[in-house]
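Expect chain and fold; see below:
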Amino acid sequence: MPTNHYGANSAWQQLCVLAHNLLRSFQLDTLATPKPRCRKRTYAYVLRSMRTLRFLLVVRAGRLSRIGNRQVLRLPQNPATETLYERVVHALAA
């Protein structure tokens, strides 16, 4: 978070740039879909925001249950989510 100190603000800006580059690189390696170019939009891929990726990949409805004295996260069976996760894992493994 920005402060009145030059060093702290510089570190904050570098962390923001690093997070942005990491997010874009992750999407280009896993989820980005090619987009036809036109005169108005010259970018080649559809890239999502961090908020969209968070809700798409991380925030999922689940239930914590205790099985054998261990906490286990159980997710509902959803074929679309399973194929999305398999696609991401396959792209990261390649």
About this structure: The two ends are 36 Å apart (CA to CA). Helices lie at 6-29, 50-58, 79-93.
